[in-house]
Amino acid sequence: MNPNAPYDVVIVGAGVAGSLTACRLKATRPDARILILEAGNNPTTPGERAAFVDTYQISPTKSVPSPYAELPNNKEKFAPSSDGVPDFTVMNQYYDEDGKLDVFASGFQRMIGGSTWAWRGNTPRFVPNDFQLKTKYGVGVDWPFSYDELEPYYMQAENELGISGNATEWVGITPRSGDYPMPGMAPSYGDELARTALSTIKPIDGIPVKIVTTPQARNSQPYRGRSACQGNSSCIPVCPTGAKYDASIHVNKARDELGVELRTASVATRIVPPAGDGQPYTVFFRDWTTVDHAEQQLTAKHVVLALNAIETPKLWLLSGLNNSSDQVGRNLMDHHSAEMIGLFGQPVYPFRGPQSALGVDTFRDGDFRKNNGAFRMTIGNDGWGRSGSPEKTLQSFLWDDTNKKVKLLGKPLQQAVADKVTRMLRISISTEQLPNPDNRVTLSDKTDALGIPHPKIAYKLDDYSKRALAYGHSVTRRMWQHLEDTAGATRIDPVQPTLKYNGAGHLMGTMRMGDKASAVVDAWGNSHDHPGIWIVGSSVFPTGGTANPTLTVAALTLRTADALADALATTP
Amino acid sequence: MSDATDFLALSELLTGETGLDEQLAEAYRGRLSDAYPQDLPALLTAYRAAATQGNPLGALTTAVNADPKLARVTRETVTAWYTAQFLKPDETPDAPATPQQYQSGLIWQVIKAHPLATAPVPPAASGYGYWTQHP
């Protein structure tokens, strides 16, 4: 084969979408010449995983990016990740946010395997009405296809990622044509106490508070050469065993088993469309391991953009590609999370096992969506989550900051810390946001170490999203009231809705699918303006629903890869 | 007695634990001495005086709370043993020197959990599903 011949497919990005695309294409078209271009260059060996754990444990902050902060693409700012810290004074300044609007509070990891290194692994499906929000509730937009059309791909995605779940618990929420590949993750000792206490709660606003086992990309038994979960309680930011799925699994499979080329440390800088019929696309990139970081190029008949919802529009805009719908970079969405914390009436012993196993998924749909966003709920197994760590509790009993004196020492200090931390429980919500064309990604004047512009973000919560936070608080407060009444719960906080939120790390929108007039890609992820460019990832979501997006990303990716495989068959 | 011996005894008094690891104590004494070069020796002096009293912990608490600098280094000594990390005088963190120090933090045994990213191993209850049981 002529090494200078165009690749059949160049995939930009070695995350879950890019690596699944490569594996699916190779399975369907074994002769296709495929390259994955990736900005990071982290090894994906067990030794590197252990090194990430070490880095995390000696990190002073234990933040989400802490295991990966020392990677040269981050440290030297060749291809910076975003920490997503919702504070203008400490965030890593990758996003150029002007501070006048709301904060886009979610980050991402640029590395082989992408942000799946640092996700919790929760994989609920979208609910059927998420695909027809406009038709059912008069808000947002419809997707260009239905839940039923995606369902077979959900099944395939669940097998690829390796999902643990109990299908019978999901009857009436998300229809299924088959079982999960593994039984649901075992809930913790404390989870069962909370579930028992909430088993007697009456429906709230007519909606049953049904607690279900959250489907997770985490092995509840050995699966495809990986062990069952060992319960390290560090799903975010790093799984020490690999029992939790991350996309390095499919990257390694593509490279080592299927013959897909992988070029790392290479940051795509622009895509140039063909000069004429029958000509290939040109992909320009800079390899940050070279001395001069000079721009290089290669050609491909098809280009797949498998970046996240920030980096995909950034690359599109950098390239000056056509934008006939004017939707490139627009409709940026996230899920907004908030937690209500309290002390359970007896110890629940958090920080043992997965960070969460149970949730409430009955408030993800209903007529209320005409007025406000829906929400998912999670029962945490990690104490007070982001609201208060064991270390903070230690300080509260040890130190009187007003008078600069020590308070408790010795066994009394131990007993006070133990009594409080072992009873810590959180119930979190993750709320729906509507697409808004004014929430958008453009290019900043600020640049990284390769001279590539940072993304500039304009972002504002609409009233629909704020009402979702308020309604989520109301429902959660009533659940906690039941725990106060029946299980001795105390110290509930906050008792009033604050509308404060964290990002869920669920970057969505910005390259949405739909018809040519109002969307960037068609229902198969194929660009309306450039037929050789395909987009996979959560950037193509027209609406965000309430489900953690990765499973839907995987399902859509397999669907797009099948369409691309068909296109390859007809590409000269 | 040496500073090393007295720091170990001081640490056991402050944490309420017995049998603290001597090497770990030396590591923490070194890190705390670097951050608090005057205050840590002063705390050891206060400890030696308190150790002769009928209620050493009570006497030491009274003594250190009479001096904000002593109170502060007392706080940081306890924090180091619990979390392998403490705050330096400028409020920046002195991070765990090694993963092993992090894993040795007393806070995990106090709350009957395990250090994050370090799941229990046999003979402790371990492996898939250990978390379903009372610790």
UniProtKB/TrEMBL annotation, chain A:
Gene3D superfamilies listed in its UniProt record = FAD/NAD(P)-binding domain
> Which keywords does the record carry?
FAD, Flavoprotein, Oxidoreductase
Q: Name one Pfam family in it.
A: GMC_oxred_C
Location of the Glucose-methanol-choline oxidoreductase N-terminal domain: 228-336
Needs which cofactor?
A: FAD
Q: Which GO terms describe its molecular function?
A: flavin adenine dinucleotide binding; oxidoreductase activity, acting on CH-OH group of donors
Q: InterPro entries under this entry?
A: FAD/NAD-bd_sf, GMC_OxRdtase_N, GMC_OxRtase_C, P2Ox-like
Report domain Glucose-methanol-choline oxidoreductase C-terminal positions. 435-556
Which family does the record claim for this protein?
Belongs to the GMC oxidoreductase family.
- Protein name per Swiss-Prot or TrEMBL: GMC family oxidoreductase
From TrEMBL, chain B:
- What protein is this chain from? Uncharacterized protein
Q: Which domain of life is it from?
A: Bacteria
Q: Which InterPro entries match?
A: FAD-SLDH_ssu (IPR024651)
* Record-linked Pfam families: FAD-SLDH
Supply the source organism for this entry.
Streptomyces kaniharaensis
